[in-house]
């Protein structure tokens, strides 16, 4: 058939059948079997960008970034439209995973993003960066999922700024590679008359680890202001503290993957407040402390700080108001 005077080949029924079967296998986690079918489809229709896009997508699921880059390059070479194709986005993710910064920059530009002028850095990473503000990322989306807050370094990476719970195996300050399509939103406008809506991306894998350990400590803080003072003190030292008692909520999977308010103490609670049968709940960090609960002085707090600093940090916090503050049971948990 012809589209605007150009000849396009319609995929054969055999190609469609192999592709459909492959994606059914992908849904079941049978990547090797799916790969054989998608390779066959690419052999049948090598001139179709979709053949190579599908293979690149499979390699992304397998975290085989070298093969994802190869298939992605073949896909974009066969594209009909010059800007905005998802093939470029997946290629950008693969290039970022491989730290191929010239290709990453080329992919984001070809997708339609305006990149800042290059800095001329020797590694090229700075020229591929595109700070995109705050976002949330779902750690371990197929396991004990936990939504944390972070700073987007570019279209495929988030630096984690919440202190993840130890069950996630992640730390404050780590950089994670994430998928391109948001899987939920967090609305900070609830209860405030204004705010912003932030996307929730699913983690693909850890991109850069953090050397800063996570500590669990029990606090005695007479007022929220006492708790806030510790978080401020840690931030001033270049690290972090987070009152997990008020910053983390358990959401059912459906609510976690939809738009959820995050700041108001009442609205932040999942109306279901449990995991669905057969589906564990998702932990979600709020963008601010919940204000709807009655204050309890005993708080379970996460602290991200080096071993040589954490006790001094806590002792300094107590020394500023010893009648209202205390800490005990410090434990490194991640």
Q: What's the rounded overall pLDDT mean? A: 86
Shape, principal axes of CA atoms = elongated
Number of domains: 2
Major beta sheet, specifics? 5 strands, mixed, barrel
Uncertain stretches: 1-7, 264-279
Region (Disordered): 259-299
InterPro entries: TPR-like_helical_dom_sf (IPR011990)
Biased composition (Basic and acidic residues): 260-299
Protein name: Tetratricopeptide repeat protein
Describe it for me?
The protein has eleven helices and 15 strands. The protein has a five-stranded mixed barrel with strand order 3-4-5-6-8. A four-stranded antiparallel sheet has the order 10-14-9-15. A two-stranded antiparallel ribbon has the order 1-2. Residues 1-7 and 264-279 have low confidence and may be disordered. It has helices at 13-27, 31-44, 49-62, 65-77, 86-97, 101-111, 125-128, 224-236, 244-247, 253-256, 307-319, and strands at 2-3, 6-7, 134-139, 146-154, 157-160, 175-178, 185-187, 197-208, 214-221, 240-243, 248-251, 259-261, 282-285, 298-304, 325-332. It folds into two domains: 12-117, Alpha Horseshoe (Serine Threonine Protein Phosphatase 5, Tetratricopeptide repeat), CATH 1.25.40; 131-334, no CATH class.
Core attributes:
5-stranded mixed beta barrel; 35% helix; Tetratricopeptide repeat protein; 11 helices; 15 strands; 334 residues; alpha+beta; Serine Threonine Protein Phosphatase 5, Tetratricopeptide repeat; single chain; disordered N terminus; 4-stranded antiparallel sheet; TPR-like_helical_dom_sf; 2 domains
